[in-house]
C-alpha cells in the first residue's frame, strides 16, 4: 500500500506550472481577435461552429412551438432585416433564419450559421422596435464576436487543466484532501476564468449591438431603456461577481457612457432617411 503524503508547496507549484503550460500552449496555438480588438482563444473552425449552430437550432425548433402569428413574425423579421443589412461581411450576405417562439420567456438568442430566435415574452418587456433591436443586435454581436467559439475553447482548456491537476493531486495526497483541493480548483476556475469571460462577452455584445442598431436606424438610447424595463421586472439577481451577466445598472451605465460615440451614427442614418418601419403588433 502506498502511503499518502502531504501536498507540499513545491508540489503545488508543480501542477500550477503544468496548468499554465497547458493553457499557454493552447493560447499560442490559436490566438484570435474580437471586433473590439480583444485577444481571444478560438480552437474551433467557423465551419464547426456553424454546424453546431445549425444542429442546435433544429433541435430548438423541434422542442419549442414556433409562432404562426403573421404580424408578430413580420415585426421581428423587419427588425432582423434592418440589423443584418448593417453587419460586416460575410454576415450581411449570408441567409439568416428568424423565428419567434411561443413562450413567456424574456429572452432571445442568435447562433452561428445564421439563426435568430426571439421568445414572445420578450415582446412584453421590449416595448418599442428600438428596444427589441437592442436585444437582437446584442445577440447577433455574440455570433460575430465568436463568443461561442471562445467560450467552448476556454471550457476545453479549463477542463483539460483540471484533469491534469486532478491526476497529479490524486497521486500525491489522500483522497479527502484531493477532493477538497479539486472542489476549490473547480470553483476557482469558474469564478476566476469562465464567469469573467462571460461578463466580458455580454459587455462586448452590448457594445456591438449599439453599433448595429444605430447604423440600422434605431435610437441607441433605447438600449438603456430596455435594461430599465428588465430591472423593473423584479426578482433578486445574484451578485454581479458570481453572475455570468453584468447587473442591469452596470449595463445601463456602460451604454450611457458609450452613447456619445454611437448617437452620431444614428443621427447620420436619420439624415439619410429610409428608416426601418417595423410596426409593433
TrEMBL record:
GO CC term (a single one): membrane
Cofactor binding note of this UniProt entry: Binds 1 zinc ion per subunit.
Example GO molecular function: metalloendopeptidase activity
N-terminal signal peptide: 1-25
Cofactor: Zn(2+)
Keyword Metal-binding appears in the UniProt entry: yes
Gene3D superfamilies to which the protein is assigned, alphabetical: Metalloproteases ('zincins'), catalytic domain
Keywords (A to Z) from UniProt: Hydrolase, Metal-binding, Metalloprotease, Protease, Signal, Zinc
Domain Peptidase M48: 72-258
Any one of the GO BP annotations: proteolysis involved in protein catabolic process
PANTHER family in alphabetical order: M48 FAMILY METALLOPEPTIDASE, METALLOENDOPEPTIDASE OMA1
Family according to the record: Belongs to the peptidase M48 family.
Designated name of the protein: Zn-dependent protease
Amino acid at each position: 500500500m502506498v502511503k499518502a503524503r502531504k501536498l507540499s508547496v513545491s508540489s503545488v507549484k508543480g501542477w500550477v506550472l503544468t496548468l499554465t503550460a497547458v493553457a499557454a500552449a493552447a493560447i499560442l496555438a490559436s490566438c484570435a481577435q474580437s471586433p473590439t480588438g480583444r485577444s481571444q482563444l478560438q480552437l474551433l473552425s467557423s465551419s464547426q461552429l456553424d454546424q453546431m449552430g445549425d444542429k442546435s437550432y433544429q433541435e430548438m425548433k423541434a422542442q419549442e412551438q414556433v409562432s404562426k402569428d403573421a404580424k408578430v413574425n413580420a415585426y421581428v423579421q423587419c427588425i432582423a432585416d434592418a440589423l443584418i443589412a448593417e453587419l460586416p461581411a460575410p454576415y450581411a450576405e449570408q441567409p439568416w433564419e428568424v423565428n419567434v417562439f411561443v413562450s413567456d420567456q424574456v429572452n432571445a438568442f442568435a447562433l452561428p450559421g445564421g439563426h435568430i430566435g426571439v421568445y414572445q415574452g420578450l415582446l412584453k418587456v421590449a416595448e418599442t422596435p428600438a428596444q427589441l433591436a437592442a436585444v437582437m443586435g446584442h445577440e447577433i454581436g455574440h455570433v460575430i464576436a465568436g463568443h461561442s467559439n471562445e467560450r467552448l475553447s476556454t471550457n476545453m482548456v479549463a477542463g483539460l487543466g483540471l484533469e491534469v491537476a486532478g491526476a497529479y493531486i490524486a497521486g500525491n495526497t489522500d483522497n479527502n484532501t484531493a477532493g477538497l483541493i479539486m472542489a476549490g480548483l473547480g470553483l476557482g476556475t469558474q469564478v476566476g476564468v469562465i464567469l469573467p469571460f462571460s461578463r466580458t462577452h455580454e459587455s462586448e455584445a452590448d457594445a456591438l449591438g449599439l453599433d448595429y442598431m444605430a447604423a440600422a436606424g434605431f435610437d441607441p438610447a433605447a438600449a438603456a431603456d430596455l435594461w430599465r424595463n428588465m430591472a423593473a421586472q423584479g426578482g433578486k439577481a445574484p451578485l454581479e461577481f458570481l453572475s455570468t451577466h453584468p447587473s442591469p445598472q452596470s449595463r445601463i451605465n456602460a451604454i450611457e457612457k458609450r452613447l456619445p460615440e454611437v448617437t452620431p451614427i444614428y443621427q447620420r442614418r436619420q439624415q439619410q432617411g429610409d428608416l426601418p418601419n417595423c410596426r409593433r403588433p
